[in-house]
Description:
The structure holds two protein chains of two kinds. Chain A contains no helices and no strands. By secondary structure, chain A is low in regular secondary structure. Chain A is elongated. Chain B has one domain. In chain B, 71% of the residues lie in helices and 0% in strands. The chains are: A little secondary structure, B mainly alpha. Chain A binds chain B through residues 1, 3-10, and chain B through 5, 9, 12, 47, 50, 54, 56-57, 60, 63-64, 67, 113-114, 118-119, 122, 164, 167, 175-176, 178, 180, 183. Chain B: Its main location: endoplasmic reticulum.
Amino acid sequence: TSNANLHDEL
Amino acid sequence: MNAFRLAGDMTHLLSIILLLHKIRAMKSCAGISLRTQELYVIVFVTRYVDLSMKYYSFYNSIMKIVFLGTSISIVWYMRYHKVVKQTYNKDVDTFRHIFLILPCFVLALLINRAFTVIEVLWTFSLYLEAVAILPQLVLLQRSRNIDNLTGNYVFLLGAYRAFYLLNWIYRFFIENHQVRWIPWLSGLLQTAIYADFFYYYIKSWKNREKLKLPA
């Protein structure tokens, strides 16, 4: 579960 | 990006624009909780610490800047603007937000996805956002008459996270089947806290009567 698409939301 | 998330972001943006408009146009922040607005500044600052380090998309970056800028300017108006600050009644806005900040921070230290500064701050901001509206809801319960703009502001603010819940369902089934307990449960709690407000807001809208929350 890569970090990227966890924090890509506002 | 999916339609639910875009709808959520636009609803969130609209709620903030509406509040900023009320404050600037009416030169009044009557009925608005400064405590809640200060919590939102903390939420945005701690969530967007990676703004200068991580670039996801133009949209993502511009929205972060807009949310930071508008939330900080709302607090500025309520604290320092010579006319607006006179309309702030601190005697009714008494919710001690330290009782929200501290537990959320401790919880973020205990329950997170990774014990790094960015991750703990991001988790803290999600927990804090879930409860940040409480001072505002308490203030509404104390207000005899809630003006329409304030009612609409709180409604849109609650609705945005409901759209995000749909966005997470969509992403889970359509995109990467990734389980994201922290945002999901925080968002669920956040939306649940609005439940009784939604009930009275929709009732007042249907019966064409003034919005009134039971004390």
